[in-house]
Amino acid sequence: xxxxxxxxxxxxxxxxxxxxxxxxxxxxxxxxxxxxxxxxxxxxxxxxxxxxxxxxxxxxxxxxxxxxxxxxxxxxxxxxxxxxxxxxxxxxxxxxxxxxxxxxxxxxxxxxxxxxxxxxxxxxxxxxxxxxxxxxxxxxxxxxxxxxxxxxxxx
Length: 155
What we know:
Layout: E1 7-13, E2 19-26, E3 29-30, E4 32-37, E5 43-50, E6 53-61, E7 67-74, E8 77-85, E9 91-98, E10 101-102, E11 104-109, E12 117-124, E13 127-135, E14 141-145, E15 149-150
Antiparallel strand pairs: 1-2, 2-3, 2-4, 4-5, 5-6, 6-7, 7-8, 8-9, 9-10, 9-11, 11-12, 12-13, 13-14, 13-15
């Protein structure tokens, strides 16, 4: 085992002694994997840091243990494909990021019970720029063209 005087392993406990978070600080910055927990001890968030910025794989869980979202950060910004799930583990929607901004197709899937593509839009630098398609439960398609409409992402 290498001893590093600049790295400190931290376990944060609640007032009643339950582990809430664990991770490593190096030279005062979060570095490496951090895990936060729900009050029952199941994992809430697994994420990685580099010099106190989110960097690497990210997973958020529902209290039942199912992953609610997963993706990747690079120096604090969302990058690459991200997936978001319903509480039963079925895919809810996917989107892609470049340098923290939405880029490419946003795909929304049918309800809680089905992971069938329901709609998609194309966006560039978080602006809708292309075509949108939508199918209702009756599977009658709806299509539209967008000029420039700002997408607001809430994470």
